[in-house]
Amino acid sequence: MAPGAKTEPVAVCLDADVVIAGLFSVSGASHAILVLGEVGLLRIVLPVAAIEEVRRNLGQKLPEALPAFESLLTSLFVESSTPTPADIRRARPLAHDKDVPIMAAALGAKSAILVTHNTKHFKSCDDLRVVRPRTLITEARAWMARFGR
Questions:
Q1: Which structural domain, as residue segments, surrounds residue 109?
Q2: For residue 126, what are the β-bridge partners?
Q3: Which end of the chain is more exposed for a tag (fewer CB within 10 A), N or C?
Q4: Average pLDDT over every residue of 119-130
């Protein structure tokens, strides 16, 4: 890539577990992903189902953290994604039943990567990779090492 060439941020869909982990650990890979979204290096996609899951889990277990989550939604470059019926049909063979809405939203938003701690519940496909947060951060370090070369 030529110096100064404009590139678009990589679209990364986050599962609810990544968002929750990122809110509560300032040293973990999940938090680093949120920071990369905040500085615009990643385009963070949050499925509507994941947003609802985070709100529900925080409301039940840690209601004092809800304001931090709402702040995250407004401070990050976050795109919410609601899947279409076609996205849901395409996602069914790629995810456990309860996770179909997450996979469908990732596909519908044309995310390149779906990040989750629960990789056993999802399958990668031709245009969407499923990875753990640590994998994404390792790859992001490699991308950044190539800057300026």
A1: 11-145
A2: none
A3: C
A4: 96
Could you tell me the two tokens for 82?
């609601």
Summarize pLDDT for 14-64 with one digit per residue, the tens: 999 999 999 888 889 999 999 999 888 899 999 999 999 999 999 999 898
Give the span between the Cα atoms of 92 and 101, in whole angstroms.
9
**Which three-class secondary structure string do you get for the chain?**
CCCCCCCCCEEEEECHHHHHHHHHCCCCHHHHHHHHHHCCCEEEEEEHHHHHHHHHHHHHHCHHHHHHHHHHHHHCCEEEECCCHHHHHHHHHHECHHHHHHHHHHHHCCCCEEECCCHHHECCECCEEEECHHHHHHHHHHHHHCCCC
Predicted TM-score (pTM) of the model is 0.90
Total domains in the fold of the chain:
1
Q: Is residue 124 part of a domain?
A: yes
For residue 74, the domain's CATH number is 3.40.50.1010
